[in-house]
Write a structure and sequence with these properties.
Length: 117
C-alpha cells in the first residue's frame, strides 16, 4: 500500500468514533461487559444519534431510552460518559472520540443504558 493509501485509511479512522458501552442485565448474574463499537462520524452527531445508529445498524439488542427531547430538558437520556453525567441528546461528539458509556450512577439499571427513575 502506498503512502496515499495509508493516509486515506488513517483519515477514515480519525473520522470514526469509538464507543465502548458497558452492558449489563441485573436479572442475570453476569458481570457487566464492555462492547466496543466503531461508527462513522457525521457532522453535528450527538451521543444519542450515535446510540441510535448502533441500535439500528450494528446491534438491535442494545437497550437505551430512545426518546429524546433534543433540548436537554427531559433528562430521560442521561448516561455516564467517561465518568461524567451527560445528556445524550445534547452531548456532541467529535471525530476520533473514544467514549466509555455507562448507565447513570445512582439509578436502578433495567438493562444496558436503560435505567429507572
Amino acid at each position: 500500500m502506498d503512502q496515499a493509501g495509508r493516509d486515506d485509511k488513517l483519515g477514515d479512522l480519525q473520522r470514526n468514533v469509538e464507543i465502548i458501552i458497558r452492558r449489563s442485565d441485573p436479572h442475570t448474574p453476569a458481570i457487566p461487559k464492555d462492547i466496543i463499537y466503531a461508527i462513522p462520524y457525521s457532522e453535528g452527531m450527538t451521543l444519542h444519534s450515535a446510540l441510535d445508529y448502533i441500535y439500528r445498524v450494528l446491534d438491535p439488542t442494545l437497550a437505551f431510552r430512545p426518546y429524546k427531547c433534543n433540548r436537554g430538558i427531559c433528562m430521560s437520556c442521561v448516561v455516564t460518559v467517561n465518568g461524567k453525567k451527560r445528556q445524550a441528546c445534547s452531548t456532541f461528539i467529535n471525530p476520533g472520540d473514544h467514549l466509555l458509556i455507562e448507565p447513570i450512577h445512582g439509578r436502578p439499571v433495567i438493562r444496558d443504558l436503560a435505567t429507572g427513575f
